[in-house]
Amino acid sequence: SQQGEEDPQALSIQEGENATMNCSYKTSINNLQWYRQNSGRGLVHLILIRSNEREKHSGRLRVTLDTSKKSSSLLITASRAADTASYFCATDDRSNYQLIWGAGTKLIIKP
Amino acid sequence: DTGVSQDPRHKITKRGQNVTFRCDPISEHNRLYWYRQTLGQGPEFLTYFQNEAQLEKSRLLSDRFSAERPKGSFSTLEIQRTEQGDSAMYLCASSEGYEQYFGPGTRLTVT
User: Fold this and answer.
1) How confident is the model at residue A72 (pLDDT cuts 50, 70, 90)?
2) Contact between residue A74 and residue A63 where contact means Cβ atoms under 8 Å apart
3) Could A45 and B41 be called an inter-chain contact, meaning their C-beta atoms sit closer than 8 Å?
């Protein structure tokens, strides 16, 4: 079953602009992860944020987590053409290491 | 280590035939996962192994699907009596912790 729901489903911005994607989930989690998928490299892990963290940075990526609202956001700053991809949030089932995925946000960076 | 590999990358089969896919995980990873992904959707969990033990299997997985991981190394996913609805990308991932590393996938087309 799909736990995470990303919003928006699709996003098209100009190169250099910032892109923000949101994810909502339904149950308690240990952590939340963001992944990127494009045709060239498949699914790649971007960043993990633990349930006791509120914000995390990695390069041009900034992730926030609000466990009271069961939501997370991914901000990509100064977007590049190579950021064109689908972005997925994935949450764990607290009883094991299984990940539950949303349907993703399709991001297009226009040159 | 070159990461997770999957074989074959593409498989076209006729309805009713059996197919088998192979996944070679990153060598030091003890967990191995199989997912199915259809166009525009996130990965859908199928099953996962910790070493050679199959710990979880999706309720959505019919009896036509079986997976093995002999000796806790590579894994195989077999689909018996394929149906057109089995057409999808089959992804394998491995992990040591929460972060999962994905292979390129096997695209199955059932005609």
Assistant:
1) very high
2) yes
3) no
